[in-house]
């Protein structure tokens, strides 16, 4: 039987082998939405870019609901493989395939049938309603493609092909750039063209990552296993923290868009759109770190190698803090140059000035968010869904609305920006409280207690 390298290989080599491709892939994933914004901002104007940002929570719903299944499945299957139970791992994976297919089709139907009500709910006014609903309607057609690109790409890490997701993402972003240029820049198809370009780009990525899962000799493939409702319920509950993360991201964008619309109209939404694009680079690097170590954590947890888990998490926390500090400095020093890439400075000077000011406050997030992201992913990998959900919810669902209520009335626009660092800093306190409570109570999950048993 093939030896599981995740359990025996030297940790520094494993860390770089899994983390570096995951980080690069996550950043390239983030470029998907930014590519649309770059082309729309330059060829169709700030309103088109703002329309796509209003519709972004729908895109996050596709990704987030897929992550609930995919992340939970990878954690449960990884722990099963670490414990040597291939049959259970195959059943978990097969169940995930069926549930993900049904879920993505439901999301597709919702976007096709109700694009205008969804856009209105997300905060589109009369200026942005048409563009936002167009983007939702077209992107909905590709919901299953996006979902399975994520699942098959993540699966590569458990079958010791961590470069697979990166290769699929490179294919996706390459297709997106080419298709966006043709659809938006050459053919003038605007928002609908940008949405179609993104969906077709994910189809290109799916064609790359699916190949190992089509072979029966791969430990996880589309042929083996049986549907087990109990297994997929456990996996989905454990992965629900990732769904909460994406729901929090969608809620944050929704609340921030509405707040900026109140204080500065379309210009405020455009300024936030730009900062959100740039901030996503940083956040995705940190999520890449968390995703990269996840198969190492889950497999070693299944095998009971707790010291390897501790060392891996510590390396990830230190790395994320260093990245956050560096990137905060980049925001302060090169903020105007980065923001000016998205809009013409002569035509959109007010939006750029607003975004530069916001970036200096928003950048404080990076000192805390990396810690929170790794801690949430750590608990997911070990099957501690409750702690992971609490951390993910604190970052967006709980404390961002509180921050907006507290600071926006006192400080106006600056208060809206400040709500994001506030949420991350408070969540650090939540993470530390969880750690010390578990340590005080000597709470240690053992592989025999995990949800795949």
How many strand units?
Answer: 0
Largest sheet: none
Mean pLDDT figure: 82
Q: From N to C, what is the helix and strand string?
A: HHHHHHHHHHHHHHH
Compute the gyration radius: what is it?
21 Å
Please report which band the strand proportion falls in: under 5%, 5-15%, 15-25%, 25-35%, 35-45% or over 45%.
Answer: under 5%
Report how far the terminal alpha carbons are from each other. Answer: 22 Å
Which class of secondary structure composition applies to the elements? mainly alpha
Number of helices: 15
Query: What is the general shape?
Result: globular
Instruction: Please indicate the count of domains.
Output: 1
Low-confidence stretches: 444-453
Structural topology:
Elements: H1 5-8, H2 11-43, H3 46-82, H4 86-113, H5 115-121, H6 129-140, H7 143-158, H8 163-186, H9 190-209, H10 229-303, H11 306-339, H12 349-362, H13 366-381, H14 385-411, H15 413-440
Helix pairs in contact: 2-3, 2-8, 2-9, 2-10, 3-4, 3-6, 3-7, 3-10, 4-6, 4-7, 4-10, 5-6, 6-9, 7-8, 7-9, 8-9, 10-11, 10-12, 10-13, 10-14, 11-12, 11-13, 12-15, 13-14, 13-15, 14-15
């Amino acid at each position: 039987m093939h030896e599981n390298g995740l359990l025996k290989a030297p940790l520094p080599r494993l860390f770089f082998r899994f983390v570096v491709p995951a980080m690069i892939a996550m950043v390239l994933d983030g470029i998907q939405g930014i590519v649309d914004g770059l082309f729309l901002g330059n060829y169709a104007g700030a309103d088109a870019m703002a329309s796509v940002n209003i519709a972004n929570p729908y895109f996050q719903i596709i990704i987030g609901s897929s992550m609930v299944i995919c992340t939970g499945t990878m954690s449960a299957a990884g722990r099963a493989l670490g414990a040597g139970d291939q049959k259970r791992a195959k059943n978990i994976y097969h169940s995930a395939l069926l549930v993900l297919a049904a879920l993505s089709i439901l999301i597709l139907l919702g976007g096709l049938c109700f694009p205008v009500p969804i856009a209105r709910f997300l905060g589109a006014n009369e200026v942005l309603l048409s563009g936002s609903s167009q983007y939702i309607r077209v992107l909905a057609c590709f919901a299953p493609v996006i979902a399975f690109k994520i699942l098959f790409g993540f699966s590569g890490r458990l079958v010791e092909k961590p470069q697979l997701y990166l290769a699929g993402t490179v294919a996706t972003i390459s297709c997106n750039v080419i298709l966006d240029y043709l659809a938006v820049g050459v053919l003038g198809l605007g928002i609908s063209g940008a949405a179609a370009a993104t969906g077709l780009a994910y189809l290109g990525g799916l064609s790359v990552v699916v190949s190992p899962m089509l072979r029966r000799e791969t430990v996880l493939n589309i042929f083996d296993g049986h549907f087990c409702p109990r297994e997929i319920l456990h996996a989905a509950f454990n992965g629900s923290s990732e769904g909460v993360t994406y729901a929090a991201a969608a809620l944050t964008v929704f609340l921030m868009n509405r707040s900026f619309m109140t204080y500065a109209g379309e210009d405020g939404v455009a300024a936030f759109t730009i900062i959100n694009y740039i901030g996503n680079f940083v956040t995705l690097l940190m999520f890449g770190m968390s995703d990269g170590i996840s198969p190492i954590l889950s497999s070693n947890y299944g095998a009971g190698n707790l010291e390897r888990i501790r060392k891996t998490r510590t390396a990830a926390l230190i790395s994320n803090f260093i990245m956050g500090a560096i990137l905060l400095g980049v925001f302060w020093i090169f903020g105007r140059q980065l923001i000016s890439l998205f809009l013409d400075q002569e035509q959109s000077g007010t939006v750029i000035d607003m975004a530069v000011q916001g970036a200096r406050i928003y950048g404080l997030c990076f000192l805390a968010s990396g810690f929170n992201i790794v801690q949430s992913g750590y608990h997911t990998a070990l099957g501690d869904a409750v702690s992971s959900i609490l951390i993910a919810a604190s970052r967006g669902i709980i404390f961002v609305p509180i921050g907006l209520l507290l600071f926006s009335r006192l400080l106006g626009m600056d208060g809206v920006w400040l709500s994001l660092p506030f949420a991350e800093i408070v969540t650090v306190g939540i993470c530390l409280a969880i750690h010390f409570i578990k340590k005080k109570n000597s709470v240690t999950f053992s592989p025999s207690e995990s949800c795949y048993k």
